[in-house]
Amino acid sequence: MAYIGFFNGTSSVLSNVNQIGFRSVNFKQRTQTVVTKTISGRTIRTQQATTLWEGTLEFPALTHKEFRQVQGFVALAQGSLNEFDIILPNISSRTAGGTLHNLSVKDNTAAGSTTIAAYQTLDSAGQPIKGDGDSAGYTPADGFTILNMGDIIRFDNHNKVYMCTSDVTPDTSGDFDIPIQPALTTAVVGLTGKDNSNFSTITEINYDDVAFRMIFKTDSQDYRYNVDGTVSFRVDVEEVL
Question: Which ranges in the chain belong to alpha helices (H)?
């Protein structure tokens, strides 16, 4: 198993990434829930594993020359063996309109939590917040929604992607919590108690062009080479942790 890089985006390993896009993305959420019914008719539901994201990616008709980069990337992945990052159009982008600077975790938060206290690493004057106790400098005018329900985020210390379960709007002091699902799979490190000497250990949050860490779902891929010189291709992917 190995990580082979970004399929698309500014860090893509494809040399012609600007020519490659998706015709459609079928986005899926897979949650494993075990349902047990007792003799009395009571239903007991337990979740066995974290939610994973899946998708079916359909490419537009590409010339065989354009498609060779995609075909080479699939070969590099070696079926479902190797993992990669992929940015999904519309899904990976933030939909909220409020101004949002670099985003980091405010308080240490354990795995299993579904609420993350966060802060912006620049205040409203554009100055960096570098230690516990620094003022964010927000005013009520800054209290626009910065993340919408359904927007996704990813932390820089692990690969899981999470979805916001309600709108996120800072209060007048600039504080805000991010409610997420599924629950954190890995603990994150916050600003509280830090100073400039260990500021670099704080977990940052990616909220735009969020990449999913994925693998190809099957080991067999079919390429349709059409007689007009184009190639048709669709592929199933799933999140991997």
Answer: 64-77
Q: Which domain holds residue 67?
A: 3-91+211-239
Domain identity same for 125 and 155 = yes
Say if residue 119 is in the same domain as residue 200: yes
pTM of this structure: 0.87
Distance CA 37, CA 238 (A): 30
- C-alpha radius of gyration, the chain, whole number: 21
**Looking at the 3D structure of the chain, how many domains does it have?**
2
Instruction: State both tokens at 30.
Output: 């897979």
Check residue 123 and give its pLDDT. 58
Clarify whether residues 147 and 98 are in a common domain.
yes
- Tell the residue number behind the tokens 């929604």, with chain if given: 145
**CATH number for the domain harbouring residue 185:** 2.40.30.290
Instruction: Please report which helix (H) or strand (E) contains residue 209, including its range.
Output: none
Q: What is the largest CA-CA distance in the chain?
A: 66
- Model confidence pLDDT, tens digit, residues 131-189: 555 544 444 445 578 899 999 999 999 999 999 999 998 776 667 899 999 999 999 99
- Which carries the bigger pLDDT value, residue 68 or residue 128? 68
Residue 193 has a pLDDT of 65
Dist. CA 160–CA 190, nearest whole Å: 18
